Amino acid sequence: MFSRKLDKLLLMGSYGKCIPVQCLDALKEKLPLIGKKAWLTVNCNEFRITDEFSHTHHDHLIKVTESELEIKHIDRKYESFGA
After folding, report:
1. Rounded to the nearest 5 degrees, what angle is found at the Cα of 27, between the Cα atoms of 60 and 66?
2. How far is it, in rounded angstroms, from Cα 80 to Cα 57?
3. Beta strand 8-12 with 68-73: parallel, antiparallel or unpaired?
4. How many other C-beta atoms can be found within 10 angstroms of the C-beta atom of residue 44?
5. How far apart are the first and last CA of the chain?
6. Structure confidence at residue 42 (pLDDT)
7. Which secondary structure element, helix H or strand E, spans residue 30, and what is its range?
8. Fewest Cβ atoms nearer than 10 Å: which of 26, 37, 63, 83?
9. How far is CA 3 from CA 7, 9, 19, 59, 71, in A?
10. Phi, psi for 62 (deg, rounded to 5)
């Protein structure tokens, strides 16, 4: 899924429309298990997620809001996306 060079991925707008909620659920569970300090943010106003939450899973912070899914390794907590 990831090459050695890819460790951050931001999907905004229309890309988010292509990701079904079931796939987002799979990402929440499996992305923290790949053995990398991954960071994935998917931002889309089409999600219509009503169960907002934030928790930690295998050293990754997982935050879900009505328009965003963010999975971020705890070592990157204070890192900005442009860095």
Report:
1. 85
2. 21
3. unpaired
4. 20
5. 22
6. 83
7. helix 21-30
8. 83
9. 8, 12, 21, 20, 18
10. -120, 120
Sheet containing 8-12, strands listed edge to edge, beginning at the edge strand earlier in sequence: 8-12, 39-43, 68-73, 60-64, 53-57
Please report, in tens digits, the pLDDT of each residue of the chain (83 residues total). Answer: 555 666 777 776 654 456 777 887 888 889 899 888 888 888 766 655 666 778 899 999 998 887 788 899 999 889 887 65
Predicted local distance difference test score (pLDDT) of residue 28: 86
CB 11 within 8 A of CB 43: yes
pTM: 0.73
- Closest alpha carbon to 13 in 38, 41, 36, 53: 41
